[in-house]
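step=encode ok
step=design start
structure_in=
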């Protein structure tokens, strides 16, 4: 899971495809680790790029923790377009 925020608050994506499960749900970015990913950080940065076209360097990402219930690593990044260009 990837939590992106800026000075004004969090950024969330919204499911807009009515055929998808959880249509209209506001959610943070994330996805499963694929065999081509070496770890969860690589997976979340890949998903971020796929879903938003943002490319954030791994050194700018902060690891928040792991949700044991869902076996999900949680990362965050304060988005500053001057430091995180597309």
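sequence_out=
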């Amino acid at each position: 899971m990837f939590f992106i925020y800026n000075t004004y608050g969090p950024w969330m994506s919204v499911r807009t495809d009515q055929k998808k499960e959880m249509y209209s749900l506001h959610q943070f970015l994330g996805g499963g680790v694929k065999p081509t990913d070496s770890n969860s950080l690589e997976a979340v940065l890949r998903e971020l790029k796929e879903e938003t076209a943002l490319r954030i360097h791994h050194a700018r990402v902060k690891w928040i923790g792991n949700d044991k219930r869902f076996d999900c690593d949680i990362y965050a990044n304060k988005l500053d377009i001057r430091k995180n260009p597309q």
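step=design ok
step=annotate ok -> The first strand starts at residue 2 and ends at 6.
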